[in-house]
């Protein structure tokens, strides 16, 4: 996953540099394999050390992962019964550590699609429309960070975060309650702010509003104790 060998060669995370690395059935991966991705996700590089030398490879990739809510996959499905005992679910979810989840910006639950929706002819957002929205948000960020090494909101450091993501009283209280109620880490707090700023950019809003904070908080579903 991270590379290795002698001489060192790049792994999947470096081959995905400036691209997407998709991991299906995330808890089925070896826990040690997942844990070694923590630092590359933070630093966007990976260093492989050997006795005679160390080699650093680029690893600025987007991690996309999928997992079931339990080993059988039916825990949240209203149409099927889940027979997984709580200890089994805890063991299954425990394969993905909290520090790794902390480094993933968005956690969402995708429910089973009803038959009526499968047969519905209602059009959704097209790829071209999505691209237009993303490009508009990227242009806003390019203007915001003009002349700086930072290019997008995800690259904001702690100091820049306080400058760019200024909150009003309502928004600050909402974020405070989410952090306290869910026991969020400082990293999760900062990720919510970065995500809220991006949602505001997509909404073409100059300031982060309550609805942007609320949406960003709802994208951290795995930070809540929903598996027991």
Provide a descriptive summary of the structure in words.
This protein is mainly α and 228 residues long. It folds into 2 domains: 8-104, Rossmann fold; 127-223, no CATH class. It is built from 11 helices and 6 strands. It has helices at residues 12-15, 31-35, 38-43, 86-93, 98-102, 115-119, 127-144, 158-164, 169-182, 186-202, 210-218, and strands spanning 3-4, 9-10, 20-23, 45-49, 54-58, 62-65. The strands form 3 sheets. Strands 1-2 form a two-stranded antiparallel ribbon. Helix 10 packs across helix 11. The chain starts with a strand and ends in a 10-residue tail after the last helix. The relative contact order is 0.10.
């Amino acid at each position: 996953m991270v590379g290795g060998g002698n001489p060192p060669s790049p792994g999947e995370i470096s081959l995905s540099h400036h691209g997407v690395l998709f991991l299906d059935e995330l808890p089925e991966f070896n826990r040690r394999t997942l844990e070694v991705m923590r630092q590359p996700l933070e630093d966007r590089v990976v260093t492989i050390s050997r006795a005679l030398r160390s080699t650093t490879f680029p690893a600025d990739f987007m991690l996309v992962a999928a997992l079931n809510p339990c080993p059988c996959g039916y825990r949240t499905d209203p149409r099927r019964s889940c027979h997984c005992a709580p200890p089994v679910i805890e063991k299954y979810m425990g394969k993905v550590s909290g520090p790794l989840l902390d480094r993933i910006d968005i956690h969402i639950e995708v429910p089973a699609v009803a038959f009526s929706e499968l047969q519905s002819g209602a059009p959704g957002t097209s790829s071209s429309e999505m691209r237009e929205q993303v490009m508009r948000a990227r242009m806003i960020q390019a203007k915001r960070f003009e002349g700086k090494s930072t290019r997008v909101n995800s690259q904001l450091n702690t100091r820049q975060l306080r400058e760019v993501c200024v909150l009003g009283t309502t928004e600050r209280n909402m974020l405070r309650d989410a952090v306290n109620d869910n026991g969020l880490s400082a990293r999760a707090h900062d990720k919510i702010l970065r995500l809220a700023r991006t949602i505001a950019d997509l909404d073409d809003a100059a300031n982060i509003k309550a609805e942007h904070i609320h949406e960003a908080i709802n994208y951290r579903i795995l930070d809540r104790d929903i598996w027991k």
